[in-house]
Specification:
The complex is a heterodimer of chains A (114) and B (110).
Chain A lengths: L4 E3 L2 E4 L5 E6 L6 E7 L5 E8 L2 E5 L6 E5 L5 E5 L8 E8 L9 E2 L3 E5 L1
Parallel strand pairs in A: 2-11
Antiparallel strand pairs in A: 1-3, 3-8, 4-5, 4-9, 5-6, 7-8, 9-10, 9-11
Chain B lengths: L8 E5 L4 E6 L8 E7 L6 E6 L4 E2 L4 E4 L5 E6 L8 E8 L12 E6 L1
Parallel strand pairs in B: 1-9
Antiparallel strand pairs in B: 2-7, 3-4, 3-8, 5-6, 6-7, 8-9
The chains are: A mainly beta (114), B mainly beta (110).
C-alpha cells in the first residue's frame, strides 16, 4: 500500500511569489493535515481538511490556505511568500473524521524562499 | 490536549533497550498517548499509541502507568537506524491535529 505522497520534494521561490504544495493521502483516507516545520522549530499545525471541508486551522495568517479535492488529495497555497516561510511542509492523512484516527505522514516538501 | 514533558536527549548503546520516558500528569481520561519519531528531516513516523493498557507492536512497546500520568516507550534492541527525535503526544482528538513538543533526541551509539 502506497503511503502519503507529496510534491514537489523541493521548491525554491522568491519573496512575494506564491507557492503550491500538493499531497496525496493513503488510499481510503479522507482526512488531510498540513504542518510546518521551520528550521530549529517544532512541527506547527496549519490546516485540517476532511471530506472536502476545512475542519480546523492553526495560528497562521490567511495567506496560508488550501483545499481538498473530491479524490481527497489536497493543495496548500502560500501567497505573498516571506523569508520566514522557508520550512519543511508536511502532509499527513488519516482514515476517518472525528480526529482520533492515527495520522501517517508524507516525506514533506522543502520550501526555500529567497 | 494535555501537555507532555520529555528529556531533551538520551544516549543508548546499539543492541541495548532504549527506554524513553514521557510525563503527562494532566492527561484526561479520553486522551490517548501517541508516539512518533522523526529521523533527520524526514516526515514523522508513527510508532505506537495506547489509552491505559500496555501495547506492543513490531516496532516498540508502550508502558503506561496505572495512574496514566506517565509512560515509557521501549525499543527492545536499538540499532543505529533508531537514532531520531521521539515525540510523545497526549491526544484527545477534538481538534484533529497533533500537538508536537520538542521531543527527545535519541542517539544510538555503536
Amino acid at each position: 500500500e502506497a503511503g502519503v505522497t507529496q510534491s514537489p520534494t523541493h521548491l525554491i521561490k522568491t519573496r512575494g511569489q506564491q507557492a503550491t504544495l500538493r499531497c496525496s493521502p493513503i488510499s481510503g483516507h479522507t482526512s488531510v493535515y498540513w504542518y510546518q516545520q521551520a528550521l530549529g522549530l517544532g512541527l506547527q499545525f496549519l490546516l485540517w481538511y476532511d471530506e472536502g471541508e476545512e475542519r480546523n486551522r492553526g495560528n497562521f495568517p490567511p495567506r496560508f490556505s488550501g483545499r481538498q479535492f473530491p479524490n481527497y488529495s489536497s493543495e496548500l497555497n502560500v501567497n505573498a511568500l516571506e523569508l520566514e516561510d522557508s520550512a519543511l511542509y508536511l502532509c499527513a492523512s488519516s482514515s476517518r473524521t472525528g480526529g482520533l484516527e492515527t495520522q501517517y505522514f508524507g516525506p514533506g516538501t522543502r520550501l526555500l524562499v529567497l | 490536549d494535555a501537555k507532555t514533558t520529555q528529556p531533551t536527549s538520551m544516549d543508548c548503546a546499539e543492541g541495548r533497550a532504549a527506554n524513553l520516558p514521557c510525563n503527562h500528569s494532566t492527561i484526561s481520561g479520553n486522551e490517548y498517548v501517541y508516539w512518533y519519531r522523526q529521523i533527520h528531516s524526514q516526515g514523522p513516523q508513527y510508532i505506537i499509541h495506547g489509552l491505559k493498557n500496555n501495547e506492543t507492536n513490531e516496532m516498540a512497546s508502550l508502558i503506561i502507568t496505572e495512574d496514566r500520568k506517565s509512560s515509557t516507550l521501549i525499543l527492545p534492541h536499538a540499532t543505529l537506524r533508531d537514532t531520531a527525535v521521539y515525540y510523545c503526544i497526549a491526544r484527545g482528538g477534538s481538534q484533529g491535529n497533533l500537538i508536537f513538543g520538542k521531543g527527545t533526541k535519541l542517539s544510538v551509539k555503536p
